[in-house]
Design brief:
disordered C terminus, mainly beta, 113 strands, 8-stranded antiparallel sheet, 4-stranded antiparallel sheet, 7 helices, globular
Length: about 1450
């Protein structure tokens, strides 16, 4: 079998040729160390010109398009393009990430700028609104955001002399911004008559509110405040692309190729005409300028960087060159020298020295170049052109040898034969032409077998054969030089190929990822010496694979840097380097090839940081080549926590059902019952799909979770307290270092994390709005201030929180596969680890992001648990094969065999570790995992007498381990919690059903006992008295769905899933009798009342069978239901059966024969029923909720005093109704503790307790029934009512009107508000009484209180002098907003003034002078006003306004303080 592992060698980026000048500006600066920082493709480059060395920042995954330098000139911020673009702030000295800013912009980040003290960073997005964001970049937090402009913004700058002021400019606008609180408020620049309305391309701020900006026409516009005060005309011949401010003054650069220097008052100092210098050329255009001391850096449109010394400005140094705009496709390497040749759509061919890292020759051609090849003697360079011609040049002096045009379409590939005699030319015309080199490139053959364009070619070592690939994924072979196709593959068996650059063939099968298009991989080149292959693809990835690479989905090492498609990759002649070229980024990358031997020597050097794992061993079929996954883990990976309907959907669903609601609201509805429930005890622990969720608290109690409840268990008193803030399954739990607070995460559409106090059971913080579907792992930092969480979304997003503030600090996509555990480093809270399916990653926080590196261990195993060790670098993880992996930093040091089967749990002690596995063994280890000190096997034989139940099986799979108070606390997959004394005995404290739904529930007719039966194939008897334990358990051959005690309590009937049922002794659980008459599940089973003579058995086959218990015979069958039976009830006499079905039928049958009866609804109510567990009928009509289409009422039970009906439903609610529940949508009391559907509810014989079971959450809950008037006042252990205010009747009319006011204004094309009606003076005048009566106008003088009619509008203003527009000043406002506002009038200044609002104006009225002063910064109606009462902040007012909505969800309105 071929080796599918990644190769042992790797690539290191050594040099990047080029500079991004096109479509970018202001992206070239001197750092504090006098190095030059700029970017190319997706790489930030720091270039030391003195030592001629480059360093690279590789934290981006797409094209960088913006750059800003921190005022201290060490840190750099770069912004990229992409669907989810981000900003990286990085250190130019170490080229390591300092902070990542993300989750705000879309499409790309066009501009960046730091403020004067470097604390804030402003960014401009490429979205349709050109959003401007101000960041606290160290924390990765957005301080303010606002839409920038409707058109493109080209530059933004902080006013370095006025704090919290910014200026932005772009297409036909300039805006002056104020940062106030978290609001950015713009004022548009007024061009007036001083200058034409222009597109402003760049700007710089000066003292005294002066701003200088460069315009598209070459003028410099000078602004004072927001007004244009003068222009410097003709500063440049055309557009000014760059402006740089420094201590000496300003430098500007433009399209005219000139750089001008200006003093601090913008008086000209000097001009540098770059086009006229030695290195200059026609069309040179300046895109970036940086002036420092006597040095000026200039970046050009054509990817060059010049350095100019001011006193010798006629001789600029050309320090960097690259290809210009246009795709770069042609690449060839010299056969004997360290040279690379490239050709581009910019029509230039260039020769680069790989040793000197410099351009040594350049020649411009007539046509765009698409491919290149160097002859085997290194004398000729052949270039294939886009127009179908090819040209041969002498390498020595770049003079033309020959130019031939035999084809009309582009030449895609050229190859010289190894003997140098022939040149093969492959074109878009589907053919390969063969030319004789010695015959002055005369055509000697033609290969015409392809049906598509030629993409790749290789010669055999003897020059007798040529293989080709084409666009139709065909691999063809030809005899040379004739070009005759070889169809007999036997002839090719012994052929050896001189090079391998083809992408098709058995030797390169493994380069193809699954589901890829043929043209995904653009280039391949094999290194035969080292048996390694390099590929370049459309996703900007360079990959290293083993050669030959036979099987699909081979593992590789990948390298990021190029932003978009890489068009070509080639090894240098001596295999020292790999050269790659980017199509759209038109850059040339030179990678150093480092073999395994060399890389071991260099291990002490920190590997260069990248976001894409530069040392990744990814494979497209990672899952397939690992060991077989353990069955438990596989089962867990397939679990889904998605719900059709989440509890949080209810308000929305209710809104949709409002019409139904309203119709019923008018009718008198049954009120809620007076008595209530209080959760008393829960049997169960969530172990089957969770881990590390069981701890000792500060006071020695135990905390764990089950269903939607956090449980604190006191073992001495055998009591439980509950945290009931969740409304769906809790999946994870973490304890605070002080062991007094707990964090729990739940399932949900918008899942929440609750941090709560274990003593008082109240929430301290609720974290929402980030995770989707659920939260599967949590961990606190050692100082307790941070909390790390992992989501259940497709990317298993990792979030780091400041939980007290509810603030997200960082977030990142974790992994495509499930993550089981997250741990924060106890020594450094900025570091964390995650472990999961084929996943072990080491993360560190950088601003708003996290940077992760995969654990370096060769073959990645599935990790089930992980902990930090005794130092910051040491990490220990447990694998799915039973090994413990010991890591130092991210490198695997060694593995130790610890368990048979997966290691599910691990706990670090001060000295040593404790582990638990699927083998049911708890092991104590020393602190290096060299010695196992002691093992404890969880067995029934060692169970202590004080246990609260029975161990179901020996060696249950261990899911959680915790230590404290001299004990080891163990949680198992079977839902048991055990306490292991270090001396040996084991006490069982808590247990519940195992995985599988629990449906069957029955309470004893006169003892505090209940029975449950579940899909886990067990029947259990539980004690409901204060001892709260499981009394008996029996394993069944099949899972069960229902059970029922006989009337005297001696027998217990159990219905099973295979259609059979048993009757067992209620004390010993031994079989008395069993029957198997049905194929589908037995859904309900009931003894008749009294002597229990008959047994009714309902099945999914839609029948109810009636058995005589004494004779053990079936005596009747109830037929006639359309679908499966759901519920059964007997009447008191034992003569009549009531049946409910899945089709919502309510049927009646006579016992024992089973004859169907039709009984009117009015008569049904009069029948005395022995029990009522049915959910249909007029007496329980009101139990069905408004949203009954999406939720079923699964269970009901009437109390023995016949006053209260308890129900359970699909959403996990337990509800109490006053019985009978007539009329729709009755009022109720509602309790949340079960997570998903409540499958059954039963009252005890004395109505003192209600017992409920949850389907998916597998737990048995015992609720105390508190009679009316005896209920203790408590905070809220459950929600008391679902009744909304509108259910209780109407509002007061004023409140109703105000409630229905809608302040949302939809802005469509131009109208700010929808306008209706006609202005008063344009309205058609209604005829008066006199006019209607024919009275002549003028006989009575007109009386009107309206304003006089305006004079006729002037239609001809030609020649008339226009009056200047004068400013308006607000003088007086009549009115006060009282119609829909309240508490909005206050005294100020000790009663001297009053403050209130109307329209969009805040008004201060002086009571002595009756003068008004105004706050007019709002842009729409003010709706609320408050004043700060604190003596430290006198006269500070906050006002909130309506906001304009432009086809998007409402943004929160901003507030602003006013003095």
């Amino acid at each position: 079998m071929a080796d599918r592992t990644a190769p042992n060698c790797h690539l290191r980026l050594e040099w990047v040729y080029g500079y991004r000048g096109h479509q970018c500006r202001n992206n070239l600066y001197y750092t504090a160390a006098k190095e030059i920082v700029y970017f190319v493709a997706g790489v930030g480059v720091v270039y030391n010109t003195r030592e001629h060395k480059q360093k690279f920042y590789l934290g981006h995954n797409d094209d960088i398009i913006s750059l800003a330098l921190h005022p201290e000139r060490v840190l750099v911020a770069t912004g990229q393009v992409g669907k989810e673009p981000y900003i990286c702030v990085w250190d130019s000295y170490t080229v390591q990430t300092v902070s990542i800013l993300k989750d705000t912009h879309t499409h790309g980040i066009a501009c960046l700028a730091f403020d004067l003290d470097g604390q804030c960073l402003v960014s401009v997005g490429l979205d349709s609104k050109n959003t401007i964001c101000v960041w606290d970049w160290r924390r990765g937090k957005v301080l303010a955001a606002a839409p920038g402009h409707t058109d493109r913004i080209f530059d933004i700058s902080w006013d370095l002399y006025q704090p919290s002021k910014l200026v932005s400019c772009g297409v036909k606008h300039i805006k002056f911004w104020s940062l106030c609180g978290n609001a950015l408020t713009p004022k548009r620049g007024v061009f007036g008559k001083t200058g034409d309305l222009q597109t402003i391309l760049c700007l710089a701020c000066a003292r005294d509110e002066v701003t200088y900006s460069g315009a598209l026409n070459g003028d410099i516009y000078v602004w004072k405040g927001i007004n244009l005060i003068r222009t410097v005309q003709g500063a440049h011949g055309s557009g000014i692309f760059s402006m740089n401010a420094c201590e000496e003054g300003f430098a500007t650069g433009g399209r005219d190729g000139c750089v001008r220097l200006w003093d601090l008052n913008f008086k000209p100092i000097t001009v540098i005409h770059l086009r006229e210098t030695d290195q200059g050329y026609k069309g040179l255009s300046v895109r970036s300028v940086c002036w420092r001391g006597d040095h000026i850096l200039v970046g050009t449109q054509d990817s060059e960087i010049f350095e100019v010394v001011v006193h010798d400005r006629t001789k600029p140094f050309l320090i960097m060159q690259g290809h210009c705009e246009g795709e770069l496709w042609a690449l060839a390497v010299h056969p004997t020298k360290p040279l690379a040749m490239t050709g581009s759509d910019d029509r230039s061919v260039r020769i680069w020295s790989l040793i000197d890292h410099a351009l040594i020759a350049r020649c411009n051609m007539e046509e765009p170049i698409r491919c290149a090849a160097v002859s085997t003697d290194g004398i000729h360079l052949a270039l294939g052109m886009k127009d179908g011609s090819f040209t041969v040049l002498r390498v020595r002096d770049m003079t033309e040898v020959v130019h031939i045009k035999d084809r009309k379409e582009a030449i895609h590939e050229l190859k010289y034969s190894p003997d140098g005699a022939h040149l093969a030319v492959g074109s878009n015309d589907n053919s390969v032409d063969i030319y004789g080199v010695v015959q002055r490139y005369k055509k000697v053959g033609e290969c015409i077998g392809s049906t598509s364009f030629i993409t790749h070619m290789d010669w055999s070592t003897d020059s007798k054969y040529l293989q080709t690939n084409d666009g139709n994924r065909k691999r063809l072979f030809y005899r040379m030089p004739s070009g005759k196709e070889v169809t007999n593959r036997e002839e090719l068996k012994l052929v050896q190929w001189s090079s391998w650059t083809c992408v098709l063939g058995p030797e390169v099968n493994g380069i193809w990822p699954k589901y890829s298009e043929i043209n995904d991989i653009n280039s391949v080149d094999a290194n035969f010496n080292n048996q390694v292959l390099v590929t370049a693809d459309d996703y900007g990835l360079v990959k290293l694979l083993r050669y030959p690479c036979v099987r699909k989905g081979a593992k590789f090492k990948k390298y990021l840097g190029h932003s978009a498609h890489i068009t070509n990759a080639r090894w240098s002649h001596d295999y020292q380097w790999v050269i790659t070229i980017g199509g759209a980024d038109h850059s040339v990358f030179q990678w150093k090839f480092v073999t395994d031997r060399k890389s071991k020597e260099a291990l002490h050097i920190a590997p260069q940081e990248t976001l894409g794992d530069s040392n990744s061993e990814e494979s497209d079929s990672d899952q397939s080549d690992g060991p077989e996954m353990d069955s438990e883990i596989e089962q867990e990976t397939h679990l889904t926590y998605r719900r059709q309907v989440y509890k949080e959907d209810l308000p929305q669903l209710k809104e949709l059902s409002k019409e139904k609601h309203r119709a019923v609201a008018m009718k008198k509805r049954e009120r809620a019952p007076g008595s209530g429930l209080k959760l008393h005890f829960i049997h169960g622990y969530r172990g089957y799909d969770c881990r590390n969720n069981l701890f000792y608290t500060q006071t020695g109690e135990m905390v764990y979770h089950v269903a939607a409840v956090g449980v604190v268990y006191n073992r001495q008193q055998n009591t439980q307290r509950f945290y009931m803030g969740h409304d769906d399954d809790i999946l994870c739990l973490a304890i605070h270092p002080l062991k007094d607070y707990v964090a729990t995460g739940q399932v949900g559409r918008d899942s929440s994390i609750h941090v709560w106090d274990t003593e008082v059971m109240t929430p301290l913080s609720v974290l929402k709005g980030f995770h989707q579907l659920g939260v599967c792992a949590l961990d606190f930092s050692a100082d307790g201030k941070r909390l790390a969480s992992v989501g259940l979304d497709d990317n298993h997003t990792i979030v780091l929180w400041d939980w007290r503030k509810g603030e997200k600090l960082s977030a990142i996509r974790g992994s495509k596969d499930k993550i089981f555990v997250i741990k924060v480093n106890p020594y450094c809270p900025d570091k964390l680890i995650t472990a999961g399916i084929k996943h072990m990653k080491f993360w560190h926080k950088t601003g708003g992001g996290l940077i992760g590196r995969k654990g370096n261990m060769g073959k990645t195993e599935t990790m089930m648990c992980a902990v930090y060790g005794w130092t910051e670098e040491m990490v220990f993880s447990g694998t799915c094969t039973g090994d413990i992996c010991i890591w130092r930093d991210m490198f695997l040091v060694k593995t130790v065999k610890a368990h048979d089967g997966p290691v599910f749990s691990m706990h670090a002690l001060e000295k040593g570790f404790v582990t638990g596995g699927k083998d049911g063994i708890v092991a104590l280890w020393d602190n290096t995992f060299e010695r196992c000190l002691k093992t404890y096997a969880i067995k029934r034989a060692v169970l202590a007498p004080g246990s609260k139940g029975l161990l179901l099986e020996d060696n249950p799979s261990i899911r959680a381990i915790s230590l404290g108070h001299g004990y080891i606390l163990v949680g198992t997959k079977n839902g048991e919690i055990l306490e292991v004394d270090k001396s040996g005995p084991i006490t069982l404290l808590v247990q519940g059903h195992m995985e599988g739904e629990v449906w069957g529930l029955a309470t004893h007719p006169h003892l505090p006992l209940c029975a449950t039966v579940s899909d886990d194939k067990t029947l259990r008897i539980w004690d409901l008295s204060p001892s709260h334990c499981m009394l008996a358990v029996r394993k069944l051959k099949k899972g069960g769905r229902c059970c029922c005690f006989s009337p005297e309590g001696k027998a217990l009937a159990v219905g099973l899933n295979d259609g059979s049922f048993l009757i067992v002794n209620a004390d010993t659980l031994e079989d008395l009798v069993s029957f198997h008459h049905r194929k589908d599940i037995i859904s309900d089973i009931r003894f008749s009342p009294g002597a229990g003579k008959y047994l009714a058995v309902a099945s999914g086959d839609s029948f109810v069978d009636i058995y005589n218990v004494m004779s053990s015979k079936r005596v009747g069958v109830c037929k006639g239901s359309l679908i499966y039976i759901t519920h059964l009830d007997w009447d008191k006499r034992g003569k009549l059966l009531q049946v409910n079905t899945g089709a919502k039928e309510q049927l009646f049958f006579e016992a024992p024969r089973g004859k169907k009866q039709t009984i009117p609804a009015t008569e049904v109510e009069k029948i005395d029923w022995s029990t009522w567990t049915c959910v249909l009928g007029t007496s329980c009509e009101g139990i069905w909720p408004v949203v009954s289409e999406v939720t079923e009422v699964t269970a009901a039970c009437l109390s023995n005093d016949r006053k209260v009906l308890a129900t359970g439903d699909d959403l996990g609610y337990v509800k109490l109704f006053r019985y009978p529940v007539k009329g729709k949508y009755a009022k109720f009391k509602r309790y949340v503790a079960h997570s998903t559907h409540v499958t059954n509810v039963r009252w005890t014989h004395d109505d003192g307790l209600l017992v409920t079971v949850g389907g998916g959450d597998t737990c048995l809950m015992i609720w105390t029934h508190e009679a009316e008037g005896h209920r203790e006042a408590r905070h809220c252990d459950s929600e008391e009512s679902d009744i909304e205010s509108e259910d209780d009747g109407g509002y007061d009319s004023d409140v109703t009107r105000e409630n229905e006011i809608n302040y949302t204004i939809k802005a469509l094309s131009t109208n700010m508000r929808p306008m209706t009606g006609v202005k008063p003076h344009l309205q058609l005048k209604e005829p008066s009484v006199d006019e209607r009566q024919g009275v002549v106008r003028g006989s009575r003088p007109p009386v009107s209180r309206a304003l006089p009619q305006p004079e006729k509008l002037q239609t001809n203003n030609v020649g008339k002098k226009k009056r200047p527009i004068e400013d308006l000043v607000l003088d007086l406002v009549f009115g006060y907003r009282g119609n829909d506002c309240r508490n909005n009038v206050h005294y100020l200044n000790e009663g001297a003034d009053i403050i209130y609002h109307t329209a969009s104006v805040g008004i201060i009225l002086n009571l002595t002078t009756a003068c008004q002063s105004f706050y007019i910064e709002h842009s729409d109606d003010i709706l609320c006003l408050t004043i700060n009462q604190h003596p430290k902040f006198p006269n500070v007012v906050a006002t909130g306004q309506v906001i304009l909505v432009i086809c998007q969800p409402r943004r929160p309105p901003f507030t602003c303080g006013t003095p």
